[in-house]
Amino acid sequence: MKEQIEKLFKENDLSDDALLSLIQTDECDEILAEKADDVRRKIYGDEVYLRGLIEFTNYCKNDCYYCGIRRSNKCAERYRMSFDDIIATCDKGYSLGFRTFVLQGGEDPYFTDDKICEIVSNIRSKYPDCAITLSIGEKSKESYKAYFDAGANRYLLRHETATDGHYRRLHPEEMSLTNRKECLFNLKEIGYQVGAGFMVGSPYQTPENIVADLRFLQMLEPDMIGMGPFIAQGQTPFAEFKSGTLELTLRLISILRLLFPYALIPATTALGTIHPKGREMGIKAGANVLMPNLTPSDERKKYLLYDNKICMDDDAAMCKNCLETRISSIGYKIVNSVGNVKRERI
Ligand code: 5AD
Ligand code: FES
């Protein structure tokens, strides 16, 4: 296995069989993390980029079986942030040093293309030095183009799983993997910096599914790869499923870093939820991005994709301080820059 890791380190690729074995053994985690950190430090040094997450609506017309804000969850308390509140949240984030805003929400028909464009163009003119990231699901190519023209320059859309059979088990009939993949290629074509990704340990996921995810990512060549553990949400059909593990998530972060040396890889909030030091461990395993929550606390408490989400009572300033302390304690530093990928495409 050592030679395989060396090969992965040198060539940024590995055969399906070798990847399968690597995913399934815990014997190489330490050396994988070491190599991943090596690669990451060569490209990104000790810098950790911040993305300020604004969860502006938890209405969603979709019904993904894993997600706490799925339309069938009648217990979810729904909210939408007003235009003014969204802008005020950016203002606050900007004054705290954030230079990337991620507007994330369910697929909420209330936010028409015109409304999204209005929000984006206002943030764009107020903060020309910031990156504006959208994470609002599957839309038509025309809609994506309109948001881009209004000033959005990044888009996050996890593919969730690249295997059709697995996709079917995570989503209702009306959703399709083909459409999701098409969305990602459309976004890239328009010129967005694109983020894809998947959950670790989602129900029915096999090691072969994970290899397929890695292969799909190699084909897409995204700038960002978001990957965190699945965590059950008590009001969803997957309430009784086990969460993804810390060990596998960290191992996969290291493998991602070795396969995609230039990628922006977040240590996710979900990772921080399954272990109190999960995000720090994620950074040490090769991640280089953190996405603290800027959402005002009343709304934040209602954006419950999964159970036991962290930072529910903390405001943006507290989270930033907290993360600065955590990250410097492990030998890295948080920077306030816009945090672009260090190469056009990874
Ligand atoms: N556990 C972990 N991650 C989840 N997501 C949605 N529901 C869950 C859950 N129960 C992730 C999905 C989605 C992203 C915004 O959050 O991958 O793309
Ligand atoms: Fe929110 Fe630590 S990051 S309190």
Short structural description:
By secondary structure, the chain is an alpha/beta fold. 44% of the residues lie in helices and 12% in strands. The relative contact order is 0.17.
Could you explain how this protein is built, in words?
- The chain is about 45% helix and about 10% strand.
- By secondary structure, it is α/β, with parallel strands linked by helices.
- The strands form 2 sheets. The protein has a 6-stranded parallel beta sheet.
- The longest helix is centred in the N-terminal third of the chain and has 16 residues, at about 30-45.
- It is globular.
- Bound molecules: 5'-deoxyadenosine and FE2/S2 (inorganic) cluster.
- FE2/S2 (inorganic) cluster binds near residues 318, 319, 322 and 323.
| Ligands (ions, cofactors included) | 5'-deoxyadenosine, FE2/S2 (inorganic) cluster
**Gyration radius over CA:** 19 Å
The general outline is globular
Question: What does the average pLDDT come to?
Answer: 97
Report the uncertain regions.
Answer: none
Gap from first CA to last CA: 26 Å
Q: How is the main sheet built?
A: 6 strands, parallel
- Count of separate DSSP helical elements: 14
Order of helices and strands: HHHEEHEHEHEHHEHEHHHEHHE
Task: Please tally the β strands and state the result.
Answer: 9
Approximate helicity band: 40-55%
